[in-house]
Write a structure and sequence with these properties.
With 275 residues, the chain is an alpha+beta fold. It has helices spanning 50-56, 63-122, 196-213, 234-244; strands at residues 10-15, 18-27, 36-40, 45-48, 151-155, 158-163, 174-177, 180-186, 221-228, 252-257, 267-274. The longest helix has 60 residues, at 63-122.
Length: 275
């Protein structure tokens, strides 16, 4: 694109009533939007478009120069059209890319949803385990559940069912009222195990046994409050809990630092469960 015929041409423009003369010093074919560089007599410089340059040219152009300038304008116009077309193609490709990404995300969500539904169908239904006809009379002395039958007391249109403890304890092991089981605080029966993890496992096994006796299960636990004698042993206790708890039916849980009734007891659990 030869436009050097315009380099050296004189230009003149007015600014605030003052006339400035300048010279076209260069033509930059890499910037066809503003290809002409003009330097004025006050050393000011600016880049001009073809239209801008035509409006301030002071030198008369020959017919040949006018023809070349017209050809230049046509080429610049073609170049601008190409740029516009390329930009539009780029925009369309970006739109297509976004649309494909959305479609893939939707397909992934549908697959995940289908997988979740399939897993839910295969998952055992939440509910109490089959009852043993003798369960409420079973003796689980290791956990403090008595061999005696539970005591039922009518309170209006509801009833309280109390599961008496083994031995001389002055409280029930478990009480049922309004569809909820309230389990007394459980500590380890074997304190020869001096680890928090070991005692936590004992406590959770005892909770299992008590709930089974009352016709419930760990899948129906609503709330558990743990008391740790030493909170620095939290990780040990939490590891035992993670081994035991049903991850599909997680209850709410609170962990509190507090001394148990005897120093050899390192952890105690208080449980509430659906009957």
């Amino acid at each position: 694109m030869a436009a050097c015929f315009l380099v050296g041409k004189t230009v003149a423009k007015n600014f605030d009533g003052t006339s400035f003369k300048g010279t076209v010093t260069a033509f930059d074919k890499k910037d066809l939007a503003f290809p002409f560089q003009v330097k004025y007599e006050d050393d000011d410089q600016e880049d001009l478009s073809c239209e801008e340059l035509k409006s301030i040219l002071a030198d008369e152009l020959s017919d040949e120069e006018k023809k070349e300038l017209l050809e230049l304008e046509e080429k610049i116009k073609e170049h601008e059209e190409k740029l516009k077309k390329a930009e539009e193609e780029k925009r369309q490709k970006e739109e297509e890319r976004k649309q494909k990404a959305l479609e893939k995300a939707h397909e992934r969500e549908e697959r995940e949803k289908a997988a979740e539904e399939k897993a839910a169908e295969a998952r055992p239904k939440r509910g109490r385990p089959p009852k043993d006809s003798k369960s409420k009379e079973a003796s689980v002395t290791a956990t403090g559940v008595a061999s005696k039958k539970p005591k039922t007391e009518a309170i209006g249109d509801k009833s309280i069912v109390r599961y008496p403890p083994d031995g001389e304890r002055k409280y029930s092991t478990c009480v049922q009222y309004g569809g909820v089981l309230y389990v007394a605080g459980q500590v380890a029966n074997d304190t020869s195990d001096t680890t928090v993890k070991g005692q936590t496992r004992q406590v959770l096994n005892q909770v299992d046994a008590i709930l089974r006796t009352a016709g419930s299960s760990k899948q129906q636990i609503l709330k558990v409050t743990f008391y740790l004698a030493d909170m620095s042993k939290y990780d040990e206790y939490n590891h035992a809990w993670s081994e035991w708890v049903d991850m599909e039916n997680l209850p709410v849980r609170a962990t509190v630092e507090g001394k148990c009734v005897k120093p050899e007891f390192l952890v105690e659990a208080v449980v509430e469960a659906a009957a």
